[in-house]
Design brief:
Blueprint: H1 5-12, H2 21-32, H3 42-45, E1 57-59, H4 61-74, E2 85-87, E3 104-110, E4 115-121, E5 125-128, E6 133-139, E7 142-147, E8 151-154, E9 160-164, E10 170-176, H5 178-183, E11 189-191, H6 206-211, E12 232-233, H7 235-250, E13 261-265, E14 280-286, E15 294-297, E16 301-314, E17 317-321, E18 326-329, E19 335-349, H8 351-356, E20 362-365
Antiparallel strand pairs: 1-18, 2-3, 3-10, 4-9, 4-11, 5-8, 5-10, 6-7, 6-9, 8-12, 13-14, 14-19, 15-20, 16-17, 16-18, 16-19
Bound molecules: 1-hydroxynaphthalene-2-carboxylic acid.
């Protein structure tokens, strides 16, 4: 007798009925009618705590840049492909270009004087710049300069294209909620005009001039918006906020999230909430030698080292990390960072999704 796939699965699962030719016939009937009994699946479907398919992994920035440079020589950027973006493919996700089940992370590369064409999509996107400058991303007609340390937003359904106005190539990190939008069948996409319409190179975008003044909101704009109107969060502000937290700690005042660990979250000034509905973004700074408490949370995250070096420990895996390196942290997997001579870390996660669904959980364990 050849067993049906349902019968084979049942062999490993607890609490199964006694095998018999009649039972196998029943299971063949289920298969024929595209039915699956819960009693063979419940262990996978209802684990006592999350068992993500995604796995922890580290990507070296130096390897990404080398391959992106090669792509810059061989692969044109233009209509059709739209972007010279090379995605991190989580080894647990079957080869899909997904860093986690909800998040896309890619290195994008533009040659000198090159354009990436204008389009829009419902997926929310951001850029984080770990090195270089010279590219402007034009978001709904507003040119936004990209420089080291800047965090730049392209919320869903805004037209956007990029142009490199310099004589050097530039690479940066793209983060989007593509896997989430893909899984939920909610993607829309539209091409924009073929030519980049505005090649001006302002130091500050119109969005920043309107919105990026600390604690000050234009009185003409009283309504909450689902995504932040701040097109670029500049490194000088992020750096100063982190430096001030650590200086306050030196002076004996509160502010850091744990000893030697400063952190800020990028927020939507119209709500005080996350920058975009599906993506949380933060910057962390560890003093030399600091080891963070082990922490796990529902939802997945991607970290990129902005500066310094240290060690990332995710569950049982441990990797040295330096500038630009990326670490992917699956749901409910404990994470600690240990700083060498100081460590600046950019983090993005899908936490807003789980908070909105009241499915968020966090567990922090103090170290030895
Ligand atoms: C996109 O528009 C960008 O605007 C980056 O830079 C990555 C991946 C898939 C689809 C659209 C960008 C993307 C993308």
């Amino acid at each position: 007798m050849t067993l049906s796939p349902v019968s084979l699965k049942a062999l490993d699962a607890p609490g199964q009925p006694t095998p018999s030719p009649e039972l196998d016939e029943l299971y063949r009937g289920f298969e024929r009618e595209l039915l699956v009994p819960l009693w063979t699946e419940i262990g996978d479907l209802m684990p006592t705590s999350p068992r993500p398919a995604a796995v922890a992994h580290r990507w070296r920035w130096s390897e990404l840049v080398e391959l992106a440079e090669r792509a810059g020589e061989l692969v044109p950027v233009g209509r059709g492909g739209e972007r010279r973006a090379i995605a991190l493919a989580n080894p647990g996700l079957g080869g899909a270009p997904f860093a986690t089940p909800t998040l896309w992370a890619a290195i994008q590369y533009l040659n000198p004087r090159e354009d990436a064409p204008v389009h829009r999509h419902t997926q929310h996107a951001f850029r984080f710049v770990v090195e270089g400058e010279g590219v402007w991303t034009v978001v709904d007609g507003d040119p936004v300069a990209m420089r080291r340390g800047d965090f730049l937003l392209t919320p869903g359904w805004r037209f956007h294209g990029h142009h490199n106005q310099s004589d050097t190539p530039m690479a940066w990190l793209d983060g989007l909620d593509i896997p989430f939008v893909h899984a939920t069948g909610s993607a829309f996409f539209e091409l924009g005009p073929d030519a980049v319409e505005d090649r001006s190179t302002p130091v500050r975008s119109r969005a920043e001039r309107l919105w990026a003044h600390p604690g000050l909101r234009p009185v003409s704009q009283p309504s909450p918006a689902p995504s932040s109107p701040i097109a670029a969060y500049r490194w000088e502000h992020t750096d100063a906020a982190l430096a001030d937290q650590l200086a306050l700690e030196d002076e004996g005042h509160p502010g850091v999230i744990e000893p030697g660990h400063a952190a800020v979250r990028f927020t939507n000034p119209t709500t005080g909430g996350d920058v975009m509905p599906t993506i949380r973004a933060e910057m962390h700074r560890l003093r030399a030698g600091v080891r963070t408490a082990s922490r796990r949370e529902v939802g997945s995250a991607v970290w990129q080292v902005f500066d310094g070096e240290g060690v990332a420990r995710v569950a049982e895996r441990e990797w040295p990390v330096g500038r630009g390196d990326l670490v992917v942290v699956p749901s409910w997997v404990p994470l600690t960072f240990t700083a060498g001579a100081g460590l600046d870390l950019f983090r993005f996660s899908d936490t807003p999704i789980f908070e909105r669904l009241h499915a968020d959980r966090v567990e922090v364990e103090q170290g030895p």
